[in-house]
Design goal:
disordered C terminus, 82% helix, 18 helices
């Protein structure tokens, strides 16, 4: 603990706190639809496919906007970009409070909530640049543990939905974002972005990133770890309700606990990767993800819930490991790399609920969708084993 405390004192801790708060509240906004999925099915009379799209669209919106936010964090300043994200969140939630009606408008509103997913691409650079290189795994893990917002929204939203309309829940979240905006302004100091050149320089860095195969590889790994985490947390309430007939509040508690475990363990993954190496840590965590995901569909209610906890914990650990590698391999363009890799993770989170919902629609079971995802995790494990071979090339040095 003393070592961790010394690491925290080695940088500007208010910036770390501001980044964490920004990401925590943004995660609450980002997964708001998923947390209200059961009440929304009743309120809007939605089919399995319709609710799957409604739950998934914020994840798609976040994937698209993370790359834009990552560029903005590198070139215009992470603080300035973070403030814009909070303002847009406030506007979208205010519209949800007073103006959204019908499924079509709900789809647009759901996509608009995706702006909250872009927080990831600014919160991490904000924390990263406040600390020395030797602390990156732990600091990025702490900042990214702001996905504990998953816990808060899955715990609170079903309780709010029991006593109020979903529009009023949007109003509550708008107030939370407004308070967060004020707190962020007070915690994080104003700094000049000091961009490295103009648009041409930005395109040069983008082209350099795209030419590096290690970037694609990290995108694939993060689509498995983070995409699996956020996608599984998004479908847990519906899964528990459909398979085990668990009511919305209890299902929300279980989803919140899964999100808590996955969030708390993320800094540990970054810390272990700092000490033992990211590739070696991934070698052990990826098969754990694959095995737990398959076991989620256990006939036993107790075993199924236990495997949900194990799966989200393994994915959260893997998230911390992958972003230790991002910070190590792309130190000059951490914002851009965070945006690109984070976008891939959000795409994974978007695809998983659609995959599971679609498969369930034509097969009547969630099981095949989970088997397909587990197969992708095994493929990712295979790439790590190849990278760890004594005569293999380090992924960071892969040729263009």
């Amino acid at each position: 603990m003393s070592e961790i405390w010394e690491i925290l004192k080695s940088g500007h801790w208010p910036s770390l706190v501001g980044a964490w708060v920004h990401l925590t509240v943004s995660f609450m906004v980002w997964l708001l639809i998923a947390a209200m999925s059961i009440p929304l099915v009743t309120a809007l009379q939605l089919s399995d496919a319709e609710i799957a799209w409604l739950v998934s669209l914020p994840l798609l919106g976040g994937a698209l906007l993370r790359m834009v936010a990552g560029w903005s964090a590198d070139r215009l300043g992470a603080r300035r970009t973070a403030v814009v994200i909070l303002v847009v969140e406030l506007l979208v939630l205010s519209w949800g409070w007073v103006g959204v009606s019908g499924y079509g408008a709900a789809l647009v509103f759901s996509l608009g909530l995706g702006v909250a997913g872009a927080s990831f691409a600014v919160a991490l650079p904000l924390a990263s640049r406040a600390y020395p290189p030797s602390a990156q795994g732990l600091i990025l893990g702490i900042a990214a543990s702001g996905n504990v917002g998953t816990v808060l929204i899955f715990f609170l939203a079903p309780r709010w939905a029991a006593v109020m309309d979903w529009h009023q829940i949007c109003g509550i979240m708008a107030a939370v974002v407004a308070v967060t905006l004020v707190a962020f302004e007070l915690l994080v100091p104003r700094m000049s972005p000091a961009p490295e050149g103009g648009v041409g320089a930005w395109w040069y860095h983008v082209a350099e990133l795209i030419r590096r195969r290690s970037a694609y590889w990290l995108c694939f790994l993060y689509a498995i770890t983070f995409g699996g985490f956020v996608g599984l947390c998004s479908v847990i309430p519906l899964l528990l309700h459909d398979v085990y007939r668990i009511e919305a509040i209890e299902a929300g508690i279980i989803a919140a606990f899964c999100g808590l475990i996955g969030s708390v363990i993320r800094p540990i993954g970054g810390y272990v990767a700092d000490r033992q190496g990211g590739l070696r840590a991934l070698y052990y965590v990826l098969p754990a993800i694959a095995g737990a995901v398959v076991a989620v569909m256990s006939p036993s209610h107790t075993m199924g819930v236990a495997m949900m906890v194990v799966a989200t914990a393994a994915m959260g650990f893997g998230n911390g490991v992958v972003f230790q590698l991002v910070a190590e391999w792309f130190p000059r363009d951490i914002g851009l790399a965070s945006g690109v890799v984070g976008a891939a993770g959000a795409v994974g989170g978007f695809v998983l609920p659609i995959l599971i919902g679609t498969v369930k629609g034509f097969s009547g079971s969630y099981e095949l969708g989970f088997w397909l995802f587990a197969g992708l995790a095994v493929c990712a494990w295979g790439t790590v084993m190849v990278a760890l071979r004594p005569n293999g090339s380090s992924p960071v040095n892969l040729p263009s």
